[in-house]
Amino acid sequence: MKIKRSFGEKCFDTANVILMLLIMFVTLYPLWYVCIASVSSGTAVTNGEVIWWIKDFTLDAYKSLFKDSTMATAYANTLIYSVFGTVLSIVLTVLGSYALSKKRLRGRKIFMTMILLSMWFYPGMMPTYITIRNYGLLDTRIGVLLQGAVATYYVVLMRTFFESIPDSMEEAAKIDGASDFRILFQVYLPLSTASLVTIALYYFVGRWNSYFWEMILLKDENKIPLQVILKKFVVEMSQNDSDLGTVDYTVTSRETAIFATIVISTIPMVILYPFIQKFFVKGVMIGAVKG
Fold first, then answer.
1. CA geometry: angle at 91 spanning 86 and 92, to 5°?
2. Is the pTM for the entire model greater than 0.90?
3. How high is the pLDDT of residue 221?
4. CB-based contact 70:221 (threshold 8 Å)
């Protein structure tokens, strides 16, 4: 039997649809504009003629970027920092979370309190910079990888997830003679695939979009990531062209070069997300319910 909907319910549903359409437009239009502006002529973009569709189609902006050796090096650096940084972060997060999830760990409450304090009281930029400098890690790739290698929030989430796994599984593995490392890699991690993939995605996106500490720690142009160059494009547009790589602005405008750089920088995210989407929906709930 079909239930008759009241006028108020119909109005509510209509308002929800309109609201969602507005949110979709506000979210998707900037992405659409960046894409069409990157393949439009620089003159059309500068004059504000590009609004809904491509104007004077051209790939000059992309050609100029691909000819720029600085861009290629920066892109490679971003991949290095993102991939190796994510692997390092996952390893440290898993090891720390597994240890903290065990009640037999001596000083467990003290360690957990110290970790939580780092969430509430951030040491600040200068103490962090001085620490990295004192260890001789300025202008090094290792310094960039170690800075922010572990997010306390993700450690707490993974610890909560590990605690939800029944102790009987660990006890059964120990009866068979398994060590803690074997239990971690053969029992806990296979059960944590969705959680690990989700946290890895967060780490990867954070690394990929990071530019602030790379801008502060790195002076060698051969080590800077793509986002630092993009920041110079967007924020420091008043600088000389020579300060922003070797992009030829005689064949393209600065605006189209910015949009083309943005498109290139988002490609890995667009490619990566569809493959891990099935894990993301489940993994985003990690730590929400403790069994």
1. 100
2. no
3. 83
4. yes
